[in-house]
Amino acid sequence: MKTRKWSRIPSELEIANFDGMHCNKIYQQAVASGWHCPCCGRSAQQLIRWTEIRGTWFRAKYADEHGMGFTIAFALHHCHGYGRFETTLICGDCNTADGTAKRKLGLPKSWSFSPSEIRQFVTVAPYSGKITIDYAKAKQLYEQRSWAVFEPIG
């Protein structure tokens, strides 16, 4: 029987054996350095989540008979506008939350929330891709800083 997305938390052994899949190098470096997502605060191991594995090669290697398995996502988050912040490694869930908040609030494509701003409106449970976004807080942060879209730094 196919299990629900995010319904499994990895065991200590599954975490120890997890290689990072397509993010192998980043994952291994993040674990070794004790990295935590600067937005949601989760450790690299806490980014591991149970979901459907996509891609023929990854599915054959990592998925169970129902196509489910543990996966992970990282992103090099960057400013789409005038460089309000440095490109920063964040988890894929927080990067998704940035885009989701911008679309829902109708914000310009040239706007990006910084990692410290994302931290103020996003919550993601460990071992889960379930994202909770405080849209009112995101809107407030945008309104407080929207001038930066039009004024280049430097």
Quick overview of this protein structure:
The chain has helices at residues 12-17, 24-33, 56-62, 92-105, 115-121, 135-145; strands spanning 49-52, 68-71, 74-77, 88-91, 122-124, 131-133. It is an alpha+beta fold and 154 residues long.
Mind explaining what this structure looks like?
It is a single chain. The protein is of the alpha+beta class. It has one domain (1-149). 36% of the residues lie in helices and 14% in strands. It has six helices and six strands, in the order ααβαβββααββα. The strands form three sheets. It has a two-stranded antiparallel sheet. Helix 5 (115-121) runs antiparallel to helix 6. The longest helix is centred in the middle third of the chain and has 14 residues, at 92-105. The protein is globular, with a radius of gyration of 17 Å. The chain starts with 11 loop residues before the first helix and ends in a 9-residue tail after the last helix. Residues 148-154 have low confidence and may be disordered.
Secondary structure elements and their pairing?
Elements (H helix, E strand, L loop, with lengths): L11 H6 L6 H10 L15 E4 L3 H7 L5 E4 L2 E4 L10 E4 H14 L9 H7 E3 L6 E3 L1 H11 L9
Antiparallel strand pairs: 1-2, 3-4, 5-6
